[in-house]
Design goal:
There is one protein chain. The chain contains eight helices and three strands, in the order H-H-H-H-H-E-E-E-H-H-H. By secondary structure, it is mostly helical. The protein has two domains: 21-84, Fe,Mn superoxide dismutase (SOD) domain (Helix Hairpins), CATH 1.10.287.990; 92-201, minor pseudopilin epsh fold. Strands 2-1-3 form a three-stranded antiparallel beta sheet, sandwiched between helices. Helix 5 packs antiparallel against helix 7. The chain is globular.
């Protein structure tokens, strides 16, 4: 297989004014496309060509000789996932009663969830990602961060929601104000229906 750049699931200007068309033109068409191209280049000759993207990531995650492949494959996976976490009809107002109850059970309240999610995203030093995940062993919802290209399913956790906190994700629209970006992400952009669909599927199972 070769990696392919997925189309955005919405128009480039669909999330304005919270995320601009210009941001998507650079973030999707330049940054994500570069991970896809470099990943395809590094995949050749590895013996992993017929594997799924998740299988390639797991195989490369602990192999120092394949760190470049891991970084580009995982960034491709993370970005593809991130696009699906966004919706023009998203944000707090799109949170269903059933999912709100699950968040209350896990974190005490939506406000407590928001506070922890924002703090985790903002506290990620340098480039990385903030995540809402399901722990595969316990089934509990958790908030974690990963640095650079890290993805939670390499640590036994199922990704449910992510916010990209690499600077290229927000600098055009928010400059250095990462907290404002993450708050806007939660308030206006989260595709909660997608999150709920992933919870319903249960733990992500990928063969190593």
């Amino acid at each position: 297989m070769t990696f392919e750049l997925p189309a955005l699931p919405f128009a480039y200007d669909a999330l304005e004014p919270h995320m601009s068309k210009e941001t998507f033109e650079y973030h999707h068409d330049k940054h994500h496309a570069a991970y896809v191209a470099k990943g395809n280049e590094l995949l050749v000759g590895t013996g992993l060509e017929g594997k799924s993207l998740e299988e390639i990531i797991l195989a490369a995650a602990n192999d120092s000789a394949k760190i470049g492949l891991f970084n580009n494959a995982a960034q491709h996976w993370n970005h593809s996932f991130f696009w699906n976490c966004l919706s023009p009809e998203g944000g707090k107002g799109a949170l269903s009663a059933s999912l709100a109850a699950k968040i209350d059970e896990a974190f005490g309240s939506y406000d407590a969830f928001k506070e922890k999610f924002v703090a985790t995203c903002v506290g990620q030093f340098g480039s990385g990602w903030g995540w809402l995940v399901m722990d595969n062993a316990s089934g509990k919802l958790e908030i974690v961060s990963t640095s650079n290209a890290g993805v939670p399913f390499t640590q036994g956790k199922t990704p449910l929601l992510t916010c990209d906190v690499w600077e290229h994700a927000y600098y055009i629209d928010y400059r250095n104000a990462r907290p404002k970006f993450v708050e806007s992400f939660l308030e206006h952009m989260v595709n909660w229906a997608y999150v709920e669909s992933l919870i319903a599927k249960g733990p992500l199972k990928v063969a190593a």
